[in-house]
Amino acid sequence: MLVLVLISLLNIYGTTIDAKSAKPARSSNRTSKFIFVKSNAAAYNFADEALPVNDARVTFKLNKSLRRHAFKNVQSTLLHRKAEVLFPIIEPILKFYGIPDDFKYIPLVESGLQSGTSPKGASGLWQFMAGTARTYGLKVGHGVDERKNIRKSTIAACKYIRELYGEFNSWTLAAAAYNNGSVKLQRAINKQKEDNYFRMKLNRETGAYVYNIIAMKAIIEQPKEFGYKNYYNITQPTTLLAFN
After folding, report:
1. Helix (H) or strand (E) holding 144
2. CATH architecture of 44-231
3. Boundaries of each Transglycosylase SLT domain copy (predicted)?
């Protein structure tokens, strides 16, 4: 029985790590503590790091992202269908690597209603560039592209995210760095002398990135609130997605 359990784990995750290494290292160089104030269940947050909705600028950006992802603008239930297919695969891998569950929304933000390779060359659900993918153990080239494999790419993403968290000591900043790169984000932190994502001035894409994740979380968890009434009438399994 023990042997069978071990084999099962290897098949699911494709790799093993010990319990100690599964916990991201925590940096002690944070200057802002505001982001660590946990919000209540009714408030918006990312990975239990509070979003200061009492700030007019923050509220405006959040509402903009919520409107953008509402059914009125999206006109499709594909995001919810993707979640139904992806989350049962992604969630246990995130848990295994000690990554907050909210990171499961990143593939929906990254790939959205599209699929394939971006103009810059990023590919797969986690939109890895080829070089980054290879750095975190994925095979890319010679007719093989593991960026399109759900399990393997999610494992690679977890390794990358854990590394970013170890550098920034904030899951929100780790998400921002996932989008913009750790070097550029660290440069912005040094220049602005501010390490609270919600207080920083970043490029348009990165400045909206975490808000988009929070909005995606809201529409998936509360579809009726954002006009996805027809979602509850879906009875047939989706045939729009093809994954490895």
Report:
1. strand 144-145
2. Orthogonal Bundle (1.10)
3. 94-196
238: nearest Cα among 106, 125, 87, 80: 80
pLDDT < 50 positions in the chain: 1-23, 25-28, 34-42, 233-244
- Are the beta carbons of 216 and 69 closer than 8 angstroms? yes
pTM of the complete model? 0.81
DSSP 41-84: TTS-EETTEEP-TTSHHHHHHHHHHHHHHSHHHH--SHHHHHHH
Return the DSSP state at 126. Answer: T
Instruction: State the DSSP H helix or E strand holding residue 204, giving kind and residue range, or none if neither.
Output: helix 204-221
**How far is the C-alpha of 158 from the C-alpha of 163, rounded, in Å?**
9
Question: Under DSSP, is residue 23 helix (H, G, I), strand (E, B) or coil?
Answer: coil
Q: Distance between CA 20 and CA 136 in Å, rounded?
A: 19
* Sequence ranges of the domains in the chain: 44-231
Per DSSP, helices labelled H in the chain are: 2-13, 56-69, 71-74, 78-96, 106-111, 130-135, 150-168, 171-180, 182-192, 204-221
